[in-house]
Automatic annotation (TrEMBL):
A Pfam family that the UniProt record links to this protein: ABC_tran
Organism: Thermogemmatispora tikiterensis
GO terms, molecular function: ATP binding; ATP hydrolysis activity
Protein name stated in the entry: ABC transporter ATP-binding protein
SMART domains xrefs: AAA
Domain ABC transporter: 1-242
Family matches, as PROSITE patterns: ABC_TRANSPORTER_1 (PS00211), ABC_TRANSPORTER_2 (PS50893)
Lineage: Bacteria, Bacillati, Chloroflexota, Ktedonobacteria, Thermogemmatisporales
Domain of life (superkingdom): Bacteria
Length: 313
């Protein structure tokens, strides 16, 4: 997927909803688009899924040009919307069968056993992959939130899309359901070359992404792997404590090591510096622990800095 200088401008708007956004997503990767509410994420996804026309820019998805080949793009993408889009009164399989007919993947038949063998085998394989085989013929209204999400993913994968768009897929799910859903998404990635395009407010879900772009006010304000974002914007630290806190405090001051003292001592040192410092300390220690900053900390720092810069302009 290639996105170049994407712009979306609404009439009478003070600024562009999407303002010169560019990024590249390699096939088979997990790509995350992050940003606060109003950053432009939903507008970007709406454009990429062909439900909204861009003002300017160029987009290629699965080798097809958005401007001239949008029908081909629609046939090569799957979408799991933030809000469920299932028919509650149909069974899980009936929802999938209707989707298959609408996409023209298989001809519609009034019963599962009347459908082509290829359809039955594919649905059964995906249901097993996602752990919903036993519920395939039950009404969707009896499903939990996590089960509904899994069914939407099954439906979105039926036509073997090149790109699966997940717009806040775990919103409203309990922690156990979120964990289970991501286990299945990992299995989906492991069994195929499907590219996953994710937006989420749960930053821990992005830690294993191959690439991350952070948006604010319609622009990309940071991009890289999770590790790159954390390394470039935050610093690992060393946590120390001692039953002789006054002695440890005095020794750190004598060594000229900066620290913050709260429930423990936190020092902005990492890597080889840690071993060098520990060799020099004579105070007995009750705690030695390194703290690695999270992606959430890096994200908050990026967004906060961008908001401050905009206020100063």
């Amino acid at each position: 997927m290639q996105v170049e200088n994407l712009v979306k401008c609404y009439k009478k708007a003070r600024r562009n909803a999407v303002d010169g956004v560019s990024f590249s997503v390699p096939a088979g990767s997990l790509f995350a688009l992050l940003g606060p509410n109003g950053a432009g994420k939903t507008t970007v996804i709406s454009i990429l899924t062909t439900t909204l026309s861009p003002t300017a820019g160029r987009v290629r998805i699965a080798g097809y040009d958005l401007e001239t080949q949008s029908p081909q793009i629609r046939r090569n993408i799957g979408i799991v919307f933030q809000k469920p889009s299932l028919d509650q009164n149909l069974t899980a399989e009936e929802n999938v069968r209707l989707h298959a007919a609408l996409y023209g993947i298989y001809p519609y038949r009034p019963g599962f056993r009347l459908m082509p063998a290829a359809y039955r085998q594919q649905v059964e394989a995906l249901a097993e992959l996602l752990g919903i085989s036993e519920s395939l013929f039950k009404p969707v209204k009896t499903f939990s939130g996590g089960m509904k999400r899994k069914l939407e993913i099954l439906r979105g994968l039926l036509h073997r899309p090149a790109v699966l768009f997940l717009d806040e897929p775990t919103t409203g799910l309990d922690p156990e359901s979120r964990h289970s859903l991501w286990d299945y998404l990992r299995r989906v990635r492991a069994t195929g070359r499907t590219t996953i395009f994710l937006t989420t407010h749960y930053l821990e879900e992005v830690e294993e992404a191959d690439a991350v772009c952070i948006m604010s006010r319609g622009k990309i304000v940071a991009a890289g792997t999770p590790e790159q974002l954390k390394t470039n914007l935050t610093q690992a630290s060393l946590l120390l404590d001692s039953p002789e806190r006054a002695r440890l405090r005095q020794e750190l001051q004598q060594l000229g090591v900066p620290f913050q003292e709260g429930t423990v001592f936190e020092l902005p040192v990492a890597g080889p510096q840690v071993q060098h410092l520990l060799k020099r300390l004579e105070t007995p220690l009750s705690l030695v622990q390194t703290r690695t900053p999270s992606l959430e900390e890096a994200y908050l720092q990026i967004i906060g800095q961008h908001m401050l810069e905009n206020e100063e302009e």
